[in-house]
Amino acid sequence: MLASLSIQNFVLIDRLDLEFAAGFSVLTGETGAGKSILLDAIGLVLGDRADAAMVRAGCDKAEISAEFSVSASVEGWLAEAEMGGDPGVCLVRRSLDANGRSRVWINGRAVTLAELKALGEQLIDIHGQHAHYALQKPAQQLALLDAALGLDRAAVQAAWRDWRAAEKCLAAAQAEADSRDSQIEQWRWIVEDLLSLQLAADAWEALQADHSRLSHAAELQSSAGAVAQGLDGFEGALLPQLAALRARLVEMTAYDAALEEWLTVLDGAGDALRETARELNRYAERVDIDPQELARLEARIADLNAAARRHKLRVEDLPAHLQNAQTQLQAAEGAGDLSRLQVEAEAAESRWRGEAERLSSARRAGAADFAATVTTAMQTLAMAGGSFAVEISEAAASAQGLDSVQFMLAPHSGQDLQSLAHTASGGELSRVGLALQTVVSGQSGAPTLIFDEVDAGIGGGVAEIVGRMLAGLGRQRQVLCVTHLPQVAACAARHWQVSKVLRDGHAVSQVVALEDAARLEEIARMLGGVEITAATRQHAQEMLGY
């Protein structure tokens, strides 16, 4: 429930602080006094679109604050969204600067406009002054039926989005099929060509080393043997000479014992050289001169070099090229799996159709009771004997389901049901619209209902009935109504008057709570126009029950 509203520098309002209560309240005043401005301010604090022109002329910014008494469910929603405040209370503030920038706070926490709208839908339900004209549109009729029956379209809408997305993927895959097939063929050729070579990351280096060894096998064998012979193969070889040199050093140690340490050095060198000679002889014996293996290696190298030329790469880059081609081929084949995409699209359609059929069944099950409730409400709105019906027919698939809805009306007894859009006069459309809105509002979860001149086109005794209907609704919800009808205003528990005054040379709107005599004068003004007579006041007094 809306508990209080504070407005600063908003259009024609310089400063306004209002306290609200439960039940049925009305706002009245001359045309142009600012009644709709007040509702615009409430709409803005609920998440409506802001405009820089809403900032009062000459001011830097406008600010609107509202306090709501909230239910446990809304309090839980706030807590889950990390916007909790004092128990049972929600404070909303919105500022708008002269450049059009807007900021929002819920319980002191800065939030997005989407978050504010999500909260606003749980707090207040606003019915605009031209809402009854929207009844002529099939989409609005369908929305009213769903709202009255408490039906949630979210599952159907989500399934519809999934189906559309799957169909889009399938269409894109089909459109790109030729190009994709060419790409797949190219990647497949690369993979098959390189797989046949049995590449390994280090194979090229090992292959080159093996080829180098085999191609020089005879030279390696001859040279290893020659070196071994030079070390220890004949009298003039290095080791015999080293032995002779050691013998002379031994003779020298007889005269200087310090030279003995060099004998150790020569002995170590001799051991190393003898080991080298032995290993080189063994190597020469192991060297395999294999022309067939050499030919095989040369053929392998030729194949790899040819592949490198085909793919315009170095041989050592071929393994990475193969891995990339395999990845691209897998991705291209997955994207081009039209049969899989077709199955997914069909499954998405099936899910949507299942949700749409469930929603359609609920609409058809509840339509008769909804129509009966509206028909009952019409009987008290000078449409005695009239009837209302809902026709549901199959429509093209959409996010709203499978159904097309048409409201049918017989305004009076003895008349046939015809399309509401073609049979109702302006006044009848207003009365049926009000009946529909009160029925729908009774199903709404919002604790506060606002009606902005929804009684347009209604007068006389019907207006009094409308007032009683709104008063009855006020016993269940907080109801705020902007009206020009004294019969409606007289039924309210509280009465606010909106007027325009000059302040410091500027026009401003002000709102005053009316009690007793002041309220009597306002009802008399609404009845009598420019000149208020004693008879007019008497009539107003009778309407108010004073």
Describe this structure in words.
The protein is α/β, with parallel strands linked by helices. It has a domain at 180-335. Helices cover 55% and strands 19% of the residues. It is built from 19 helices and 15 strands. The strands form three sheets. The protein has a six-stranded antiparallel beta sheet with strand order 2-1-4-5-6-7, with helices on one face. A six-stranded mixed beta sheet has the order 8-12-13-3-14-15. Strand 12 (448-452), helix 16 and strand 13 form a beta-alpha-beta unit. Helix 9 (238-253) packs antiparallel against helix 10 and helix 13 crosses helix 15. The longest helix has 42 residues, at 338-379. 30% of the residues are buried. The model has no long low-confidence stretch (mean pLDDT 86).
Helix content: 55-70%
N-end to C-end Cα span: 29 Å
Global outline: elongated
With strands numbered from the N-terminus, the spatial order across the biggest sheet is 2-1-4-5-6-7
Q: Average pLDDT value?
A: 86
Primary descriptors:
six-stranded mixed β-sheet, alpha/beta, 15 strands, 546 residues, six-stranded antiparallel β-sheet
Give the topology.
Elements: E1 2-10, E2 13-19, E3 24-28, H1 35-45, E4 61-69, H2 72-80, E5 89-97, E6 102-106, E7 109-111, H3 113-123, E8 124-127, H4 138-149, H5 154-175, H6 177-195, H7 203-215, H8 217-232, H9 238-253, H10 260-286, H11 291-310, H12 318-335, H13 338-379, E9 387-398, E10 401-410, E11 418-419, H14 420-423, H15 426-443, E12 448-452, H16 460-474, E13 478-482, H17 486-489, E14 494-503, E15 506-514, H18 516-528, H19 534-544
Parallel strand pairs: 3-13, 3-14, 8-12, 12-13
Antiparallel strand pairs: 1-2, 1-4, 4-5, 5-6, 6-7, 9-10, 10-11, 14-15
Helix pairs in contact: 4-13, 4-15, 5-13, 6-12, 7-11, 8-10, 9-10, 13-15, 18-19
